[in-house]
Design a protein that fits this description.
With 726 residues, the chain is an alpha+beta fold. 34% of the residues lie in helices and 23% in strands. It is built from 16 helices and 29 strands. It has an 8-stranded mixed sheet, with helices on one face. A 7-stranded antiparallel sheet has the order 24-23-27-26-25-28-29, sandwiched between helices. Strands 12-15-13-14 form a 4-stranded antiparallel sheet. Helix 3 runs parallel beside helix 8. The longest helix is centred in the C-terminal third of the chain and has 29 residues. It is globular. The termini are far apart.
Length: 726
């Protein structure tokens, strides 16, 4: 069973995946600096026990700011900041009596429950709290924090074509077991594993780690020619170079004191299709029936969804790993259930149904085969395990906890909300959760597009954007791809909705996909940016739209590329699409779109697209990306109900407007003194036409019009007073 590693600490959460082998990445960018070194493929999100909690512009916000270890959360008694740990303390999920007295200025006091409650009570006074109690407010923050940590797990699985429900969630880190069961319920996972050393599992893992030495050399060789799968021109050279690297790596480990017979050699080739820039590190297959080429093609098909069988396969690097395996834990032994243990005490903790009196168990008192049903709390010396409602834990032979999540996804939609008579009111907690879900869908559309596209522009330069829209074409979530697409995509979708639904036209039907690129008439940015728009249908009605905009390297015109400098009219820049149905009745209209892309060739001096194959492949990839967004939106509707999803799309739009207005007000507030001085300059020099004075007047007009300036009336009175004095 594949495993999702979930490591939640104080400032961040690390997520990884293991299915029998470790995934490595060979280049990452951190803080704008590219690091080229082999490392495990781990996704990190800024959400941990020390992540600070805020109410901002109608939303519950968790992180990315951290309270740190000093001063830490409020409950640390060092005048710290409200954080996720405070929420767990207030909700009874972290029990102060089971923590050592190491807090406060002298580090001799227990966790401060009352201080944390007081900090939440102050937050309850803010408008965004919407009249919530302290417990409701803290529980809302926990739900938002859990969703923030679910997002990278969805990205690690769904975005790569894996079914998240078939995985087991292996949690570790000091805070991980407090959240794991709730997250598993939200993700639809049925299994959670908590190691007996979960709180210090990283340190424990180091004691079992393999000793590894790597050697790598660049190459520029051909592995196979096009569709001649049995060709292998590099076989002899490859064998020699891998042997040389293996000898170096083995020698290095022997010098460190390891015995030669302990060393295992793993051979890798960094392979790619000729003409592409997406190399994949491929390990030599252990099965004699497969070759490097077979494994590369399998990986490529799974990752990108297609093959490039007519292209040569190139070798960019040779790599060898010399490994001395560390100690291997014994396989888990099956145990029989011996029933429920006796609780050491009880406590009150807050769950989805409110306060409940629940049993507390000490891990040292539990024996293999003991079964515990949630809700309950299990206390380890290095972490606290919160067993949610509808969860059951079995103590394994090694003292670990194998948890089964019996319930489905958390109940997220009150059935009464499905009635048309019930008005859905905006909830700040759900607003934050939906913001994560909508953005996550747009990001996963982008991942699908990058996987399935073929051109360098989209696949490797990532010159594209994906977004979700309401049924009238209003923008809801645009993944952080290309910022310049942000404003124009909404205009493109709105135009298509209006165009196809206008009198005398056929409308938009299920199974159709729309395409456009015209910047003047159809909301495009420039002609090479082609927008593919797909309606999302539910029970015969359009409920949403999804769209992807990708930069196509060539669409015809007087010269290759975009916006040639010698063009004198839009036609010189390539094919123009105002409104066209790329897919109709579920069929991709290759003939129709080919005619459009070749149409510039009918104009003297112009040429049709010079790379039709890439155009068609990328358009199919955009259709596939939209389809992935539709699938995820349908899952969201199934989970929450259409009325609630639709309502929160509109709430997100209203919240975005409120955020921008607040930002502009803050900007104008900071510039109040500047505006006052500009008014005085204007009044003192009423007849001046100097360039400086004109610039200052324009700046003043901008600052006043940019927002509802809080002190605008004060300025107006100043202006009136000046006229009176004159």
């Amino acid at each position: 069973m594949p495993v999702i590693g979930f490591d939640m600490g104080g400032t961040s959460t690390d997520v990884s995946r293991y299915d029998g082998h470790l995934d490595h990445v060979f280049e990452t960018t951190t803080a704008g600096i590219a690091i080229q070194a082999p490392q495990l493929d781990i996704n990190t999100v800024a959400a941990g026990g020390g992540s600070r909690l805020f109410l901002r512009t109608g939303m519950f916000v968790v992180g990315p700011e951290s309270a740190g270890s000093h001063p830490g959360p409020v409950c640390y008694r060092k005048k710290g900041y409200l954080a996720v740990t405070d929420a767990n303390v207030v909700l009874g999920r972290v029990i102060p009596e089971h923590f050592p007295s190491i807090f406060g200025p002298k580090e001799d006091e227990p966790l401060d429950l009352e201080g944390a409650r007081g900090a939440f009570a102050e937050l309850c006074k803010e408008e965004e709290a919407s009249g919530r109690s302290v417990e409701e407010l803290a529980y809302g923050f926990l739900r938002v924090a859990n969703e923030a940590m679910c997002r990278p797990i969805r990205n690690l699985t769904q975005m790569r074509g894996y079914d998240i429900t078939t995985h087991k969630l292996a949690c570790f880190g000091g805070a991980g077991p407090q959240h794991a069961c709730a997250m598993a319920k939200a993700l639809g996972m049925t299994k959670v594993f908590v190691h007996r050393y979960g709180g210090i599992l990283s340190a424990y893992g180091l004691s079992l780690a393999d000793a590894v030495y790597e050697e790598q050399e660049p190459a520029a060789e051909t592995y196979s020619y096009g569709d001649k799968l049995d060709s292998d021109p590099s076989a002899k050279v490859r064998s020699e170079r891998l042997s040389q690297l293996a000898k170096k790596a083995r020698s290095a480990l022997v010098k460190q004191g390891y015995k030669e017979e302990e060393i295992m050699i793993e051979n890798y080739l960094n392979m790619r299709y000729d003409g592409t820039d997406n190399a994949m590190m491929v390990q030599e297959p252990t099965s004699g029936d497969q070759t490097f080429g077979d494994v590369f093609r399998d990986h490529y098909q799974r990752e990108f969804g297609f093959q490039l069988n007519n292209l040569d396969i190139r070798i960019d690097d040779y790599r060898v790993r010399a490994v001395v395996p560390g100690p291997t834990p014994d396989p888990l032994k099956a145990v029989k259930s011996i029933g429920k243990p006796t609780a050491t005490s009880t406590t009150r903790a807050y769950f989805e149904n409110g306060w409940e009196t629940i049993p507390v168990f000490q891990i040292d008192d539990l024996k293999p085969g003991h079964t515990i049903s949630g809700p309950a709390i299990i206390v380890q010396s290095i972490s606290t395990i919160v067993l949610e409602i509808d969860c059951s834990a079995l103590v394994t032979a090694d003292g670990d906890l194998d948890i089964t999540v019996l319930g489905n996804k958390e109940s997220t939609e009150d059935e009464s909300n499905q009635s048309e008579d019930v008005v859905i009111k905006e909830d700040p907690v759900k607003l934050s959760i939906f913001a994560h879900r909508f953005m996550g869908i747009a990001e996963q559309m982008g991942r699908t597009l990058a996987r399935t596209a073929i051109s360098v522009n989209i696949k490797e330069r990532l010159d594209f954007s994906c977004a979700l829209f309401t049924s009238d074409g209003g923008l809801v979530a645009n993944a952080p791809h290309i910022p310049v697409h942000l404003g124009a995509m909404q205009a493109a979708v709105k135009f298509q909705v209006q165009y196809w639904n206008s009198e005398g036209r056929e409308g938009i039907k299920e199974g159709e996909v729309l395409v456009s690129n015209h910047p003047q008439l159809a909301g495009g940015s420039h002609l090479p940016d082609i927008t593919v728009i797909t309606p999302v249908f539910h029970e015969g009605k359009v409920i949403f739209f999804v769209a992807s905009r990708g930069h196509h390297a060539d669409i015809g015109g007087i010269a290759p590329g975009s916006m040639p400098p010698h063009s004198t009219c839009l036609e010189d820049e390539g094919a123009m699409i105002i409104a066209f149905k790329l897919v109709k009745d579920g069929t991709f209209d290759e003939k129709g779109i080919t005619e459009i892309l070749q149409s510039p060739g009918k104009i003297p001096g112009n040429t049709g697209t010079r790379n039709l194959r890439d155009n068609l492949s990328d358009l199919r990839a955009q259709v596939a990306a939209n389809q992935s967004g539709i699938r995820l939106l349908h899952e969201l509707v199934k989970e929450y109900g259409l009325r609630q999803v639709d309502a929160y799309m509109k709430f997100i739009q209203c919240n975005a407007e409120a955020c921008v207005r607040a930002m502009l007000r803050e900007f104008a507030e900071k510039k109040t003194e500047t505006v006052r001085m500009l008014l005085i300059i204007w009044m003192m020099e009423p007849q001046s036409n100097s360039q400086l004075i004109l610039i200052k007047r324009l700046e003043m007009l901008f600052l006043i019009s940019v927002a509802l300036v809080p002190r605008f009336w004060e300025m107006l009175m100043l202006l009136q007073l000046s006229h009176t004095l004159q």
